[in-house]
Each structure stands twice: as C-alpha cells, then as structure tokens.
Amino acid sequence: MALPQNLVREFDELVKNYPEKRAALILALHRCQETSGWISPEIMEDLATYFGLEPVEVYGVASFYPMFRLRPVGKHVVSICHNISCDLRGAQDVIAQVCKITGAPLHGTSKDGKWTVETVECAGACANAPMFDLDGTYHEDLDAEKVAKILGAVK
Amino acid sequence: MKAFETYLLDRAKVEGAHKLETYKKLGGYKAIEKVLKTGMTPAAVIDEMKKSNLRGRGGAGFPTGMKWSFMPDPAKDPRPRYLAINADESEPGTCKDRVIMQRDPHGLVEGCLIAAYAIRAKAVYIYVRGEYRLPHDRVRDAILEARAAGLVGKNILGSDVSCEIFMHKGAGAYICGEETGLMESLEGKRGHPRPKPPFPAMAGLWGQPTTVNNVETVFNAPFIVERGGAWMAGIGTKGSSGNFLCGISGHVNKPGVYELPFGVTAKEILEEKAGGIWKNRNLKAWFPGGSSCALLLGKDVDVVLDHDSLKARGSSLGTAAMIMMDDHTSMARVMEIISRFYDHESCGQCSQCREGTQWLAQIFRRIANGKGQPDDVATIESLAKGMAPGKTICALSDAAAIPTLSAVRLFKDELLECVRQKRDPLAVPLPEYAVAHAH
Question: Which distant-in-sequence residues (6+ apart) come within 8 Å of A5 by Cβ?
C-alpha cells in the first residue's frame, strides 16, 4: 500500500514550511487519521517511507500523542472531558448518559460500529463545562437534555 | 471592584472581529504599521516591552522584554532564528487563549509580527493543541487574509522586513505546553522536554535561537507598541502590570473568561464576575491558576490576584485559571482526578516523575474509593517531597507535587478520615458505568 497521491501532494507542500522534513510528521499523522479514522501499521510504514524514517520512529511518535488512534474506531467518536472543571459540573453523569444512549462501553465501540466513547483530559473548555467533542466539534455547557438532543441528531 | 479600562477583549466582543476588514476598522495592524513606518528599531520595541513590565501569561510569569533580549545579536550570530507561539493551552482550568484565537485571531497575528520583528525572526510557528480545531482554523484563515493584504510574508507593508507565520498542530499531549517539549514536538518527535541549558534563545528549534511565547503574551505586544510601555506599567500592581485574562470555572454561577486588571481580589472576581458560588453554598477550596499551583482555602479568597500576593500565600498565579470548589466537594476525589491527570501526562523520561505520578494516582484513587491504607497520607507526602523542587528535567513533576503537598497540608484530616472510615464521607455516588469501570 502507498499513501494516496492527494496526501503526498499535500505533504510535499507542507514540508516546505520547515527546515527539516520530519517536522511535518505530526501534521501528516493528523491528515491520515482524518482520512482513515485511525493510524494503521501500514500507514505508519508508508509515512516512514515518505519521511525517510524507520517505521518504529513513526510508531514512537504516533503512540506518544493521545489524539492518535492506533486501533479502528466507530463511525462517530465522542470524547468526553473528565478533568477537574468538568468533573465538578457533572462530567460523570455525561459519561454515563453517553454510554447509555450509544450502547458503547467507555473506551470501547458499540456493537453496531456506530459509536466510540472515550474520556479525555482537559480540553480547554473549562468555563463551559461539562463538554464533549463529537467528531471534532466541541459541545459545551452540557446537560442531560442537550446530550440527548446532540446524539439523537447524529445519523 | 473599581472601574477600569479594558483593551484585551474589546474587539473580541464585536461580531465578525475575526475577519481582517473588521479588525482593521477597529484599529488593527496599526501597531505593526507604526513599527515599520516610523523606523522603530527592534531594540526600541524590546525597550517598550521592558518598560511595560509585561510578564508572560503562560504560567511562569517571566518578564517578556527580558526574554526577548536574550536572543543573540544577529551581527554576532547570523544563524536563522525562530519564534514559537505556545497555543497548546492544556493546563486544567485554562481556556483563555482559545478566546483570543477564536474571536480575535488577527490580534495574535499582529502580536506575532511584532515579536518576530523584535527578535528578528523570519519564521513564526504557532503550535496549537490538536483539539482546538475552530481556533486553529480561525488563526489559519487570519494568516491567509493577512498574507493577501501584504501583512505577512515578504516585504511587509512595502518595508524590507519579511516574516512568515506557519500553523502547527499538537496531538493531545499536555507536556508539549512545556517550551522544550513543544520544540521537540514541533520537530516531529515525541514531546520529551530537553534539559536546560542550553536555553532556547541559544539552541531552540533545530538548534537555532528561539523564543517561545504564550498566545496572550504576544497578544499584548501591539497594545504596548501603540500606547507605550509606560501606559501598561501604570495598570495593575507593582510586580504585575496590565490587564489579564482570568478564567473561572467549577462551582460558580457564571463561569467564564474575564478581562481584569491586576490588583483585584479573587473575591471580587468570584462575586462580581462569576456570580458567587452556586447553589448558595460556600467556597471550600480553590486553585488560583490551574491545577499545577497550590490549593488555597475558601478564606484565602480575599487575596489580590497577582504574582506576588499569591506567592505570599504559598501559591501562584499560574495561568490565572481559578477553579472553585464548594463545601460539598471531596478533596480525595479532587486529588484523585488531579493526580490521574499528571500520571497520564508524564512523558516518562525522569524516574521521579514517571513513577511518582503513577504512585500518587494509585494512592489517591484508593483513598477516594475507600481502600486507603493507614500510612497512605504519609506516603503521599514523602513521595511528593521526592518529586520536587527541581529534581527533574522539566516542571511537570513539580506540577504534580505542588497541589499534592497543599492538599496534604490543608486537608490531611479529611484524607485520613476517608482512610479511617474506609469510605469517602463526601463522595457523591457515581453513576453505574463508573463503578463498573473503576480501575
């Protein structure tokens, strides 16, 4: 397998922003994950070839950063903040409700493959706690009604 | 509180201020124009910064003008040099830089241009945490607009000064908010902090002279250039000048990010801005500046919120992110969360931090869950003392130890009571899923 041509063209532009090619690796990992949903071992090998690194170096980077998913995930991912400001305002109730509505276990995927539910550390939405990130969009000032409405609207 | 002049969030309150047209209408890009068209030298800009007494807004409070002056003289050291903007905002409780990036991104771009000019950097990297998609996109779009208008890139406003600004994304690691961890991450590596010295001004990004500044810090620069350093020095208290963005979260009626001058008390902010503690309860404890600073008691809320006053109370201003906890809060639970966070975020290079954060998290977890052992509180204290100060490459170990030691000092009896009763008397019953997933 090789990286799709459109990504290669994108990376060729991206690396021009840095004196060393490798600097674009994390951005490239983001783009691969946006395209495939997760970072497979094959993608890491492809990126290693592109950046002139050993696959283990790419793995070392990908595995360091919590945002990179090294396992497949559901069609939709709900990332719920469970740090202090959110916990003080009911993050635990949000987690319980999200798990119940989606049928996904915490840090797991629902049987129909539709949902993955995870907790994350402080997402910087402390003044609008509690919050979750659904597929890259923040939803803040959550309460039970709002959570039900947001998740109910997801196809 | 006394009436005061605002400036930081004035534009952010205007609809559409993230667009170049509106930003310019509100007086934007006048500061960089002043610098370039009146022949203000880089040294003169640094001088105004020094006069302003502006201290970094990222947590450490280092004087900005002094930091900029550490960059070597280009006549003697012609190496390329860089400005890195720390937009990795991830200190628990902190959500202020996001407001700037989302609502006033051109203000950040203009701040970058001035800072880069002062340190003579031709390239700026804005390192935004990966989760901040909208803030990232707003700043990216602002750079594109500014470039099209001749404000970013080659020969800015027809001058012989050039500066490129690049967006860069993190991927969820708190440690990349530490300046040397940020640089490693920007180079495409694991975010492992580097031992200092060498300091970034001598050997930073790719081994070249580098300055790392927080978003709110450089955001202040255009105001200082336009109005003069003496103007800012006249606002605030002796050791802390200007206005600052204060976040207030937790058990308050109106959490938010508010602009305030140094010199107001925490009580004024709590009551006049945040509407007091919710549910008509009382304040039990609070973090004045994010989870890495020492806890204070409810009665300490009379303290003036500035660097020196908080230091005198045994805590620190940090990122000015107040996290307020009411009198129903279990401190065992709070520390379970805080210690779990540092355990999760330790990069693992130093044994004190890697092992220490893990042990603290384990012990706080068992105390909060009614499984504490008789000597656990003493163990926590001795562990934390072994983790700080200054025993590790970076300050994450200290950041875990400081709140821990304050919790043991202020709430020892409460923690011991959890151990003695084999349950946390203040615990709120957790939803069913959490019991099933307790680890």
Answer: none
Per-residue tens of pLDDT for chain B, all 439 residues: 899 999 999 999 999 999 999 999 999 999 999 999 999 999 999 999 999 999 999 999 999 999 999 999 999 999 999 999 999 999 999 999 999 999 999 999 999 999 999 999 999 999 999 999 999 999 999 999 999 999 999 999 999 999 999 999 999 999 999 999 999 999 999 999 999 999 999 999 999 999 999 999 999 999 999 999 999 999 999 999 999 999 999 999 999 999 999 999 999 999 999 999 999 999 999 999 999 999 999 999 999 999 999 999 999 999 999 999 999 999 999 999 999 999 999 999 999 999 999 999 999 999 999 999 999 999 999 999 999 999 999 999 999 999 999 999 999 999 999 999 999 999 987 776 665 554 4
The kind and range of the H/E element at A137 are strand A137-139
| Residues of chain B contacting residue A77, judged by C-beta atoms under 8 Å apart | none
CA B265/CA B263 separation, integer angstroms: 6
The complex's ipTM works out to 0.97
Contact list, A34 vs chain B (CB under 8 Å): none
Query: How far is the C-alpha of B399 from the C-alpha of B232, rounded, in Å?
Result: 30
Closest CA to A127 of B257, B269, B245, B283: B257
Integer Cα distance of B32 and B40 in angstroms: 10
| Beta carbons of B337 and A106 less than 8 Å apart | no
Is residue A121 a contact partner of residue A72, using CB atoms and an 8 Å limit? no
Q: Are B313 and B238 in contact (CB under 8 A)?
A: no
- Find tokens 């009604």 and name the residue: A145
Does B42 reach chain A within 8 Å, measured CB to CB?
no
Q: With H, G, I as helix, E, B as strand and everything else as coil, classify residue B53.
A: coil
In whole angstroms, what separates CA B339 from the centre of its chain? 19
Residues B115 and B223 sit within 8 Å (Cβ to Cβ): no
CB-CB under 8 Å, B190 with A124: no
Angle at B91 between CA B338 and CA B120, to 5 degrees: 155
Which residues does B393 contact at the CB level (< 8 Å), separation at least 6? B193, B194, B195, B349, B350
Residues B114, B118, B123, B128, CA torsion sign: negative
Interatomic CA distance for residues B407 and B295, integer angstroms: 7
Query: Out of B90, B188, B323, whose CB is closest to A61?
Result: B188
Query: B341 near B115, Cβ under 8 Å?
Result: no
Chain B partners within 8 Å of A106 (Cβ): 433, 437
Contact A96 B170 (CB under 8 A): no
Amino acid at A61: V
Nearest to A133 among B131, B347, B433 (CB): B131
For the entire predicted model, the pTM comes to: 0.97
Of B53, B124, B134, B62, residue with least CA distance to B97: B134
